[in-house]
Write a structure and sequence with these properties.
mainly alpha, two-stranded parallel sheet, about 50% helix
Length: about 130
């Protein structure tokens, strides 16, 4: 595909702000509603949600993407690798993580956005190690 620039799956500040607001209001949102709110097709949000979940995990906060759910099951995609790696393989575990999102003291929204949108590389999984500190 010549001439096309492939977009990074990096979560946008708008996506982070929106999910923090969803968590604060103790609601869930469907993939379709998220796509409408943040632009693009629902499938395009999946890579961004995966990256955001990794960032949440790296910073020790609840995984905000668990608030994005299938309209029929009211659960996120349980087959998602990011959830399996974190032990979120059952309905009970997902519901508990959603509750963690609802009760997390998110603090200043813009600070959260900065931390999750562009966290320090050293806090991210698989960040290159500085040989001086090994």
């Amino acid at each position: 595909m010549r001439g096309r620039v492939r977009r990074s799956p990096r979560p946008t500040p708008g996506l982070v702000r929106f999910l923090v607001d969803i968590a604060r209001s103790q609601r869930l949102i469907t993939y379709a509603d998220l796509a409408r709110e943040c632009g693009g097709a629902a499938r395009r949000q999946t890579p961004r949600l995966r990256v955001l979940a990794e960032r949440c995990h790296a910073l020790g906060v609840p995984l905000l993407p668990v608030l994005v759910v299938n309209a029929m099951t009211r659960l996120p995609t349980l087959q998602a690798e990011i959830y399996r790696r974190r032990g979120l393989i059952s309905r009970t575990a997902i519901l508990a993580e959603q509750e963690r999102c609802f009760h997390e003291p998110w603090g200043d929204r813009e600070e959260v956005v900065l931390r999750l949108f562009d966290p320090p590389r050293s806090r991210l999984p698989d960040a290159p190690q500085d040989p001086k500190h090994m």
